[in-house]
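Incident review: delayed structure delivery

Summary: a single-chain prediction request sat in the queue longer than the usual turnaround. Root cause was a stuck worker, restarted by the on-call engineer. No data loss occurred. The affected request and its eventual output are reproduced below so the record is complete for anyone auditing the incident later.

Affected input:
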Amino acid sequence: MSIGDAVKRVLVGRKLASSQLGDTLLPKRIALPVFASDALSSVAYAPDEILLTLSLAGMAGFAFSWEIGLAVGFVMFIVVLSYRQVVHAYPSGGGDFEVATVNLGPNAGLTVASALLVDYVLTVAVSVSSGVQNVEALIPQIAGHEGWVAAGCIVLLTALNLRGARESGTLFAIPTYCFMVGVLGMIGWGLFQILVLDIPLRASTAGYEVVGDPFYLQMNAFAMVALLARAFSSGCAALTGVEAIANGVPAFRRPKSKNAAATLALLGTIAISMMLGIIALANLTGLKLIDPHGGSHFEVDGQRVDADLTAIGQLADMIFRDFPPGFYFVITATFVILFLAANTAFNGFPVLASILARSEYLPRALYTRGDRLAYSNGIIALATPAIILVLVFNASVTALIQLYVVGVFVSFTVSQLGMVRHWTRHLRVETDARARARMQRSRIINAVGLSCTGTVLVIVLVSKFVYGAYIAVIAMVAVFAVMKSIHRHYAKVIAETAPSPDDVRTLPSRVRAVVLVFDVSKPSMRALNFAKAIRPSSLACITVAAEEQETRAVLEAWEREDLDVPLTVLASPYREVTRPVLEYVNSLRSANPRDVVCVFIPELVVGHWWEQLLHNQSALILRARLFFMPGVMVTSVPYRLASSQAALDRAKRGDAQVAAWRRSGSGLVRAPSIEGEPPESKHADAGRR
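Output delivered after worker restart:
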């Protein structure tokens, strides 16, 4: 086993066979933290975003926090109900993409897919950035380096997810459940003290005066509507991640649809309860937040006060004032869940990318599973742009949140429209009364969902467009265009490579073999003997006269060996190797277009990466150029050096150790044996490449 393989096994774990795919399916208790951590973690910042936005209107703005909270909670309730219909109707895991494609056409499906792909990347960037900002309160030393810290966290999450959905879900389950217990316990204990024990709890900012932005302080009708719309759109960040369960139905245990729907209902209940509970406590305790970047600030007795606090931080400090462990438990669970919220995207993005790759809208490499039966390429494809975002924006939630939410509501709206058409189409042919009643009820739910999500989409676009949402829209358009281009390319390649009767039946007139001779050595002799073995119509050996002294030495050695094939010397006045060979091969093709020219290139097989830099450079360039010449075959003839044999021996010993380790474990996996060396040559058709 090489060092690279050993490191990979330590980081990712042992390989899993395709037959073990069933072992990676998720029970509901693991699926909830895997797919719902994003939506649940939104509770940590969605109420904050509502209060921060309302602070721009000063003290009067906070009076509308509970109305905004109820509106967001209602929309979430409708969306959860709507996606339960999607889960049952389309259990294959395509989710919004499949719904839109089947019912509205490929372009609608690609619109949804591009919106979701962009939103998944933003989910990772926003969640990790928010977690870093919370950690900064405990570790001030990271100030100024937030972007690099966030990038490191994304790398760590990537490594964990490469181990597989079930294993990463098990790791993330405990902190997710700790967050739920901590926040719900805090809300319950706080409301019990206020409503039952009649204890007057006051937040640390209850005595502060909030001075808002002068524009909103005018409180005219336009300013008020704009403020409430912006606060509502910010609060709708709580809905992100709801669609991930519909996209991840194949990861559930059987019955898949039933388990996914139950998990979705549980997610909705917990998330709505948390968000409304935090907003209720904020109203009852006089909790306030400010947006210093937007223009609001705290004042006490006319003096400006700086305070960078979160809603959960203030509530935990107030409710657990006499029980510090409770405060630290809630705060720790909060910033941990914010990091883990990105895990929802790490499970949703690769599955969606796999479906798109299967439909040839993304590179086919995204369709295959890795060693751990996870979509490894999709995980890496998600992590890369997320890392770039946090570095560019230095992990600023305030900047990134403006790009957020747009994509998810595009997918919500198009999906709900597709579901309405889905039920309408089925109602035309359904005759059973009970089935029709169920379909009509489902259509009403999706129609209400369409109205709600469509309204929210318009509000989000209008209220956030100038603040950065246009960047997300541009990104979606770019992803849409790229996917269309990839699909056209694959279609063109399929059309070009489809076999015709002439291709199947027409044989080349002759096979002309050309052996490239760099020097008279064992590799060259092996290439010559292999060329003779295929019995070509003609055989030529060529060398390039790049250096006169070296060429003379090659000719003398060739004559001493008394070989029965003459050596042709190609002139090279400018000391080039590639061009004379290409011109020679092209002349053979031009003289006889129906002939096939097979060029044999001797190459050294080395055992260390640094040795590759010392050998085969001319052969590598020449082979790459020959691939583009029609009617030319390229055959690499390997000659193994002693270092390559040492590398092969190391690999055999490593395989033996792995086999012994596997036998000592489950005893079910058997390592493959190595018998002999790999084939002596490999052929590559230039036309197909």
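Verification: The domain at 3-398+479-490 is CATH 1.20.1740.10 (Amino acid/polyamine transporter I).
Action items: add queue-age alerting; document worker restart procedure.
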